[in-house]
Amino acid sequence: MDIESRSYQNIVKKESWRTVLTLAYQSLGVVYGDLSTSPLYVYKSTFAEDIHHTESNDEIFGVLSFIFWTITLVPLFKYVFIVLRADDNGEGGTFALYSLLCRHARVNSLPSCQLADEQLIEYNGSSSEMTAQSGFAARLKCTLEKHRVLQKVLLVLALIGTCMVIGDGVLTPAISVFSAVSGVELSTAKEHHKYIEVPAACIILIGLFALQHYGTHRVGFLFAPVILLWLMCISAIGVYNIIHWNPHVYQALSPYYMYKFLKKTQSRGWMSLGGILLCITGSEAMFADLGHFSQLSIQIAFTSLVYPSLILAYMGQAAYLSQHHAIASEYNIGFYVSVPEKLRWPVLVIAILAAVVGSQAIITGTFSIIKQCSALGCFPKVKIVHTSSKIHGQIYIPEINWILMILCLAVTIGFRDTRRLGNASGLAVITVMLVTTCLMSLVIVLCWHKNIFFAIAFVVFFGTIESLYFSASLIKFLEGAWVPIALSLCFLAAMCTWHYGTLKRYEFDVQNKVSVNWLLSLGQTLGIKRVRGIGLIHTELVSGVPAIFSHFVTNLPAFHQVLVFLCVKSVPVPHVRPEERFLVGRVGPKQFRMYRCIVRYGYRDVHKDDIEFEGDLVCSIAEFVRSEAETAVVETNGEGERMSVVGTCSTYMQGIEDLDGSDVDEMDKPGPSEILSPKLKKSKVKKKVRFVVPETPKIEKETREELMELTEAREGGVAYIMGNAYMRAKHGSGLVKRLAINVGYEFLRRNTRGPRTALTSPYASTLEVGMIYHV
Q1: Which of 213, 285, 449, 720 is deepest in the core (most CB within 10 A)?
Q2: Coiled coil located at which positions (predicted)?
Q3: Measured between alpha carbons, how far is 499 from 488 in angstroms, rounded to an integer?
Q4: Residues of CATH 1.20.1740.10 domain(s) within the chain?
């Protein structure tokens, strides 16, 4: 069974309690690594500059009260009880919310949308039915669909959240590892530890990024035990400190201490909220990593273990600090001062391991969200390596990995302290949460069909809390908060430029496509010699003949006996079921042997390699030919072509069957109803693929001959014909457009992966046709 079928079955299977508890345990290492390591730096960042720890303990108790209620309201109430319910067929994250809105309000930014895409099972899978909207929801939907400006604003909002997640992928490893390593300051001389922290943190970070290409499946089984050990460690130390130093520290959980804190510290207390904010860093991971686990498993892990462990850890630190006031001037207030002296070295080792696990989780999440952006046409094409053939979602992107490493080392060496790293990380975290709040308000109205007052209450309540933290973080712009803003602007500019150039390229293809009638007028041989083999003409168009084909046939005297106009596109759903993967139709009469095949992927789907893809493509065309008279017509596009849904080989219950080589060798020679063709396995060893055609009077002689010709063409080999377009802005275009197309888009196109990335086509079988697009 391939990874595609396996990953889909993992989604739809019914979970038992044993499965849920197992997923809850595994989620500790993937989801909660970042959130669990926040006690390392929260108090130290909060008391770094704006406020000071005094003997009255008003500050430390006020900070503890803020931490308790922030963790309770944002991760627990907002994410665990509300946001996790807004999944997109089991997937979470910023783009999952955007995908939901795209389908319910039809504000999709993808240009190649079809009516057939809306008939996918998972297109409406997030709700049992698309209920008729009325009142404010209907007016809001109409407004969004009518005004392109609002659609662009919605896309930019989702991209801002995505860019901040990428920025968090730079800052979280830096602050987590640096804070963990900073424990050496209590065991070395003050003038020496600064020469140890930065080099040690850099070495750990380089090793972390250098090992990414091996994947996490080899050491992933250690992630959950490490975080579990860390949570037990900090909770046990917290309980010890509470009992030993201040058993009455629980009184500080009262909101009264927040009022008392702000009344005493005033503006300085408000500015210190940027440090308190770090206690919820990593909360977004609960929603972003929803696709790897389940809603119930994440809820159980947080409410039963993570939440109480964090509260005990913060209470324990506060209890210790409430009885120790002189340490502030010597070490600054940090995590390790509250750890018993005999346990500091073991805790230091566990903390470094936990920081590495937390960093690994955010790096993997960054890879995942960039893959989603690329699939939806909002990020340049990058090489995506699947590091595990068994575990869905474990990917590695080489270019992004090294960019993250360089940026991570730069901020670690440049800042060299927790305070400025905390200011930078806090702004990135709270911006993502604000974006989620805004998108969730639209989901509540448009997708959940709730009253507008529920959406207003959600935005006002959580938006007010997050805006308070956002303002406190933004005021630290010159003290480190500029970093996520600068990173986000760079990534946002690249994303918007690429998306704009992609749309302009598609518009040019549509305006310059060749009509099918022109193609048919060339005759059965297309006016040229037809040679053995299959020609796959890659195009973004879902109808018509691309300009690259007419450009090709006017310059070369021959073409393949079977032509397939191939469109590989993404649809705004996380997964497309294997039985709905292909849309297949004819271009012209049967004797022309020309087909159109549209391959649909969700933004979380795994793209198959060239060998397996070729086999599925040929099998889908063969199945279409066999069942053409019986298959229901899904769509008749603008060119009058009939398109039918055909699944991958593994989904055929009857009709064309794909038998591997071992079965072929054991069976007798093919009879008159069987057709053989060679196919390569992943191991590059030839195997036989048998198209078994049922003995039925419905299979006409003409159909059997077409299948035989398709098989012979497959034996002759497959050639990939792709366009390599050079974009140029038209004469008279504005300065912004010329900069975006001639400079920005062309720079990204030349320095990123080409169209081969979407197909993973072999170099030896790929032919690129160069053209200049004046857009």
Answers
A1: 285
A2: none
A3: 16
A4: 22-108+137-479
